Amino acid sequence: MPATVLPYPPKFPALLKDYCDQIDEAIRANRHHDTRRHLFLNFLREAFGIDPIEVELEHKLKAGELRGRIDALYRHVIVEVKTDFDNERGDAQRELKKYFASRSRPMEYIGIVPVRVMASQSYRRTRAHQ
Q: Which pTM was predicted?
């Protein structure tokens, strides 16, 4: 009989709590967007074993009229970091839409905007919302 595969590694709850504590402190201290991105990427490394060398930071895109920089790109995951998500939600959604449009197969990508404690926004392009 095969072993049960859990969706998260056993250390995940503790790592998530540590990340939430760190991001809370970064928010309280009004830390720069790069610091918040680093905290999130470090959490992904510790929780899921993602090798930081595989994450492309500030991925430059230039596709026709589209220009921009994806904060972090890992395989088919686009990470867009905002320092004040409540006020920058529309900007994040516009940027993610642009980033999806720059991919040759946008339906295969997911967008993540890490925001605050125990919350993040994820987006996926659908045919109805192109």
A: 0.75
pLDDT tens by residue, the chain, 130 residues: 445 446 778 898 899 899 989 988 998 898 998 998 899 899 989 988 999 899 999 999 877 777 888 999 999 999 988 888 788 888 988 888 889 988 889 899 998 888 664 455 555 666 655 5
Residue 130: C-alpha distances to residues 14, 47, 107, 123, 125 (Å): 37, 32, 10, 12, 6
Beta strands in 14-119 (DSSP E): 56-63, 66-74, 77-79, 110-114
User: How far is residue 124 CA from its own chain's centroid?
Assistant: 12
111 class by beta-carbon count within 10 Å (0-12 exposed, 13-18 middle, 19+ buried) = buried
